[in-house]
């Protein structure tokens, strides 16, 4: 089997230029996700979306994004990660223009679906490119810290920029802004990203497996995002969920016996990698309550505008970004990723626990600002999880590992949306029925969501303590002595 071209001797300046391109692409897609939520009321009134149909502005993006990541990551290994990255950014940029000119709900939903496809193609291979560029442990840790900083910046900028663009111009500009960023990313990526030829379709052209995993993931995410409308115990939810699980089980069974599997199961044999995926699922599910429900609390209970909400959450993004960029790498190099992950999880659990006591009439300085400081734990957790989740990736599997890691992220966020919003809404309705005021009922519902989120972080902490272990440099991902170089210089 031939191996892809790996730029192990690329000059440091060239590698950091490539990292800048990768981070810009991720900034654009993360910014797009947060910027849309702020503009949704304006989109609804302008295009005439029904309340139920409005959720499809988000769902139409999430379903292809979560469903195609694993397949896209493996395709990057087979046909070349640079080519797939360029194609994904081109599709995303073109779809953004289509979304910006949309004058009917159907057109906007179709454009959002195409955005999800483009985002899946590009983001599935980003981490795969990153780990093949940065093979030195110190350089890689710093690169992952910078990459995590970009994610925090994108989420925060999106919330603020969404309010500014929607109020000053119109919601159309939240999509048009992707055009110059996307074109710049593509033009800069052509010289900056290293050429890789891929290992060839013959090394993993499992068409049946591709159909099974893509349909299973898409159906699963479609089921989860419909829970808020249908309920967890509805026949539709249970039936579609069962079909989704059956498709994914069939995919795993096929990969165990296929001659050229789409996803070689060896990638999951590492205790640290599998544990990191489970921790990430718990963390992303729990962190939804901070990313979205805190914003809802500020607007619906405290009466903040969209712009005020974005500015109020800015300290959190600054804290996460500063820790991931300046602190995380140094701590990981000195104490190890597992120890840094534990410290970050403690801070995040404390932040979400603090939110369970926010009152109906809160003071930002007293009740919310401490949360924005404690949430800096995310700047420790995200880089550490990225390093652990990609630690077993071989050169010919880096795209697959990247796609699988990002798939877990999307599934975690989708589960967070379904579980926490449903719990908050149910609790709010019960408190209204008991005669509570609107503000008190909403606050009580959000308290429940924050409490469950804190529990998910505690569960992530337990998994880290029990499952993850300190790396042993003489072993590979299967626990055997290394016989060939892995992508990571810190083997398991």
From TrEMBL:
Q: Which domain of life is it from?
A: Bacteria
On whether Cell membrane is a keyword of this UniProt record, the answer is yes
Q: Does the keyword Metal-binding apply?
A: no
Protein's cellular compartments = Cell membrane
Pfam families per the UniProt record, alphabetical: MFS_1
Which keywords fit this entry according to its UniProt record?
Answer: Cell membrane, Membrane, Transmembrane, Transmembrane helix, Transport
Bilayer topology annotation: Multi-pass membrane protein
The residues that cross the membrane are 16-40, 52-72, 84-107, 113-134, 146-165, 171-193, 205-225, 231-253, 274-298, 310-327, 339-356, 368-388, 400-425, 445-468
InterPro entries assigned to the protein according to its UniProt record, in alphabetical order? MFS, MFS_dom, MFS_trans_sf
Q: Where is the Major facilitator superfamily (MFS) profile domain?
A: 18-472
Q: Return the protein name.
A: MFS transporter
Q: Which organism is it from?
A: Actinomadura fibrosa
Q: What is the lineage of its organism?
A: Bacteria, Bacillati, Actinomycetota, Actinomycetes, Streptosporangiales
């Amino acid at each position: 089997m031939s191996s892809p071209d790996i730029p192990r001797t690329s000059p440091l300046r060239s590698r950091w230029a490539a990292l800048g391109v990768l981070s810009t692409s991720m900034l654009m897609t993360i910014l797009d996700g947060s910027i849309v939520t702020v503009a949704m009321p304006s989109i609804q009134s302008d295009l005439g979306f029904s309340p139920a149909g409005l959720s499809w502005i988000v769902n139409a993006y999430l379903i292809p994004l979560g469903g195609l990541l694993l397949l896209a990551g493996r395709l990057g290994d087979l046909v070349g990660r640079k080519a797939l990255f360029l194609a994904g950014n081109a599709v995303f940029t073109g779809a953004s223009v289509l979304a910006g000119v949309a004058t009917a709900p159907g057109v906007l939903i179709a454009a959002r679906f195409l955005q999800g496809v483009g985002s899946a193609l590009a983001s599935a291979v980003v981490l795969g490119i990153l780990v093949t560029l940065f093979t030195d442990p110190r350089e890689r840790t710093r690169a992952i810290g910078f990459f995590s900083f970009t994610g925090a910046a994108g989420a925060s900028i999106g919330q603020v920029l969404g309010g500014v663009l929607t109020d000053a111009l119109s919601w159309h500009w939240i999509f048009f802004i992707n055009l110059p960023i996307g074109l710049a990313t593509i033009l800069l990526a052509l010289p900056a990203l290293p050429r890789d030829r891929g290992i060839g379709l013959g090394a993993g052209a499992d068409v049946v497996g591709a159909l099974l995993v893509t349909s299973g993931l898409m159906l699963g995410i479609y089921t989860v995002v419909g829970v808020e409308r249908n309920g967890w115990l509805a026949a539709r939810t249970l039936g579609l969920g069962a079909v989704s699980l059956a498709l994914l089980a069939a995919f795993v069974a096929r990969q165990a016996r296929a001659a050229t599997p789409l996803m070689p199961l060896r990638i999951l044999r590492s205790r640290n990698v599998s544990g990191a995926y489970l921790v990430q699922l718990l963390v992303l599910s729990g962190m939804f309550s901070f990313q979205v429900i805190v914003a809802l609390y500020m607007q619906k209970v405290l009466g903040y505008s969209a712009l005020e909400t974005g500015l109020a959450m800015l300290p959190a993004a600054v804290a996460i970004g500063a820790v991931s960029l300046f602190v995380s790498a140094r701590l990981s190099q000195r104490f190890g990723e597992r120890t840094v992950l534990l410290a970050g999880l403690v801070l995040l659990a404390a932040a979400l626990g603090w939110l369970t006591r926010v009152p109906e009439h809160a003071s930002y300085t007293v009740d919310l600002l401490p949360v924005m400081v404690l949430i800096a734990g995310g700047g420790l957790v995200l880089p550490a999880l990225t390093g652990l989740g990609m630690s077993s990736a071989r050169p010919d599997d880096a795209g697959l590992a990247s796609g699988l890691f990002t798939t877990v992220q999307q599934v975690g966020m989708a589960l967070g949306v379904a579980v926490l919003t449903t719990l908050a809404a149910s609790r709010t309705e019960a408190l209204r029925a008991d005669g509570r005021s609107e503000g008190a009922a909403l606050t009580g519902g959000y308290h429940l969501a924050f409490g469950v989120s804190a529990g998910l972080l505690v569960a992530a902490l337990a998994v880290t303590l029990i499952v993850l272990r300190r790396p042993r440099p003489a072993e590979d991902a299967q626990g055997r002595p290394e016989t060939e170089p892995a992508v990571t210089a810190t083997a398991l």
